[in-house]
Structure formats: C-alpha cells, structure tokens
Amino acid sequence: MPLFAAEPHVALVKSVSGRVTVMQGGTSREVASGAQLQVADRIVTAPGATAAIVFTDGTMLTLGGGADVQVRDYAFQPKAGKYGFSLYMSKGAAIYESGKIGKMAPETVKVETPKATVGVRGTRFLVEAG
Q1: Can you tell me which residues the record assigns to a coiled coil (predicted)?
Q2: DSSP 83-125
Q3: CATH number for the domain that contains residue 110
C-alpha cells in the first residue's frame, strides 16, 4: 500500500509487526508491508514493534521496538556513478545489512546517532541509539 506516488521511492517496507508509522510529506500514517519510503521519511516503531525495510540497492534495515529513524539521503544510480546512503537514528536499535551501495561505494554510507557517526566498512552491524 504506497503512501504517496508523486516522488520515486527509495525503499519498501518488507514486513511489519506491531505499530509502525511513517512521517512523510508533513503527515503521519501507520504503515503495512509494501509501503513505499522516500528520502526525508521518518520511520517510528512502537515499543515491541519491528519493521524490515529493503532499499532499492538491496540494503536491508531491520528496526526494533521504539526506534526512530530518518532517511536523510539515498542515491543509487550506478550508470551515473552516484551513490549515497545516510540515516539518522535518534533512538532505538537496528540491524543494517549492506546492499550494492555498501559494496560498491562504502565511503558514501553513513549511519548517524546523537552521539556517533558510523561509516560502513563491513556488510552487517547492529546500531543502538538513546
């Protein structure tokens, strides 16, 4: 169930357990599997909820309960040599698993928290904030 179709999506919500909301374009909506995500979207999981998100390059992000994450930047245009992946996690926990961007241009991947920025050099890690 896409939220908005005006902008190209950068990711899809693969699965949801519990209450997960997305703040997109000034509105907040509860999402289900199949929802499309765009740059600047903020994903919030309720306590005990989870969400699995797949980006167009195959990057996987699994959010635990009480997570609050914003997609700050995303670019996957191999023919043009444009890559970028930036998330800001203000609280909660997530498992990140690299897709093509992390393998082809790992220097363009950033996961930020209020106290640290993680540069991706591996393919899978757990990040916790708050």
Answers
A1: none
A2: EEEEEEEEEEEEEEE--HHHHH-GGGEEEE-SS-EEE--SSEE
A3: 2.60.120
